[in-house]
Structures are given as C-alpha cells and as structure tokens.
Design a protein that fits this description.
Blueprint: E1 6-13, E2 35-40, E3 51-53, H1 59-71, E4 81-83, E5 105-106, E6 119-122, E7 131-137, E8 142-147, H2 153-157, H3 169-185, E9 188-191, E10 197-198, H4 201-210, H5 222-236
Parallel strand pairs: 1-7, 3-4, 4-5, 8-9
Antiparallel strand pairs: 1-2, 2-3, 6-7, 7-8, 9-10
C-alpha cells in the first residue's frame, strides 16, 4: 500500500502481556498496550500534525513516554490527536496517567491536510470495531499500527488469539482475515502488546506452514493462498 506522504514514529510505550499462547501466566510482566507517536517527516511535532495511538499508559509506561517525548523537545500538550484502535480497557486513556489525553481530538482519517497520508483500515475479530492505522515511513516502509488484531510476535507465530475474551467461531475467522489483511499491507507491524514485527517472505512462509494450527482454519482456507501471493512483494521490501 503506497501513500504520497511519509511519516516518522517512535514508541512511547512498548506493550507487554503476561499471558502467553500456551496459557502460561507470568505476573512479573506488566499488562500494557503499545503506544506510538506519529508525525510527518521533515516537520517538527505540533498539535496540527501528531497522532498518539492507544494512549493508555501504566505508571512505568508514562515515565518512559515522558522521557521519549522530552527527547523530541515536546510535551503531551503538543500532541494534537489520539487514535484508539479498539475500546478495550487496556487501550483507552482511563487511568490517572492517561485521562487528560482522552480530551484530545480523535483521528478518524482524512484525505487532505498534513495527516492525509495516514489511512484507517477496519480489522474486526478481536473487537468488532477494531481499526488500524497505515502509513509510510521516511524510509519508504509501510507500517500498520495493529492494536490487538495481532497481540505480539509469539501470538502471531502460534496462530492464537486471546481466548479469555470468549470468542465464537465467526469472530475467530474474522481475526484470521484481519491478520492476513495486515500482513499483506505492511512491512512493519506494531502489535497491540509487543515490539515491532518485520513482515518478510520468510515470516509469511512460516505462517503458511503453521496455518493448519489456527482454530477454524478450515472455514477460511483461502487465506493460505492470499498469504502466498504476498510473498513475492515481501522479498522486494527492505
């Protein structure tokens, strides 16, 4: 997916999740979402050109976020818009570390202006109204801020979803369709609870090989072919 404008981004909070795909719980791991700040290349961040995604900061997260934006020479007051991928409690600015951010304008996509190169893509499954952000970096790579459509690298590689939410078959299949849509569109994925994932041909081959493990994969067998068609493009990407 190609956009005329290009953007820079930094992590303000790197997400974590204490539950792994095998159902193991590690309470030493803090449950927090990933949050990034996006602004146009060659511009200084300002209220008119910034988007902060999923601004639900923990006590540790807000400290790291303040340090990160401080290195840019700005503050939270500088941020103009927020984007919430989906309305689950761990992604919305509800606690005392984040509540003031809820008053910011919500970014819903635009076809003009300084943020016209940032697109919104619907990716239901984990949440029926989950939306992701797509933009090109100053290096020409396509980035998708995926929210919990993809939890992190381990959950993606395991073809697993967040079972405690109690999904039905239709929602699980929607999740797999959204995962494939993201992998087709992006060179880099910012998942809901982890570090960036680089989408390469080798990663896609691995996911195709493991697709039979995905629950209800028999209801969406065409997704293997859709992933296979994307391999050629990924080989060409940096």
């Amino acid at each position: 997916m190609t956009y005329r404008k290009r953007y820079r981004y930094i992590y303000l909070q790197t997400g974590e999740i204490p539950l792994d795909p095998l159902g193991n719980v590690d309470m030493s791991i803090e449950h927090r979402c990933s949050s990034v700040l996006i602004w146009p290349e060659k511009e200084r961040p300002s209220p008119g050109n910034t988007i902060l995604t999923d601004p639900c900061f923990t006590r540790n997260g807000i400290r790291n976020a303040q340090q990160a934006i401080g290195r840019l020479g700005i503050s939270f007051d500088t941020i103009g818009r927020i984007f919430i991928t989906h309305p689950h409690h761990d992604h919305i600015p509800k606690n005392r570390y984040s509540r003031e951010l809820s008053r910011k304008k919500h970014f819903k996509g635009t076809s003009s202006g300084r943020l016209s190169g940032v697109a919104v893509m619907s990716c239901p499954g984990h949440s029926p109204n989950l939306k992701t952000l797509l933009f090109n970096t100053d290096g020409g790579q396509s980035v998708c801020v995926a929210g919990d459509a993809i939890l992190d690298t381990d959950w993606l590689n395991a073809w697993e979803y967040f079972r405690p939410n109690g999904y039905n078959a239709k929602e699980v299949v929607e999740t797999w369709r959204s995962v494939v849509r993201i992998l087709q569109a992006a060179d880099i994925v910012i998942p809901g609870h982890g570090d960036s994932i680089h989408v390469t041909g080798e990663l896609i081959k691995t996911l195709i090989r493991k697709f039979h493990r995905a629950e209800f994969s028999g209801r969406c067998p065409e997704l293997k072919q859709e992933l296979a068609r994307a391999i050629g493009n990924k080989r060409l990407r940096v």
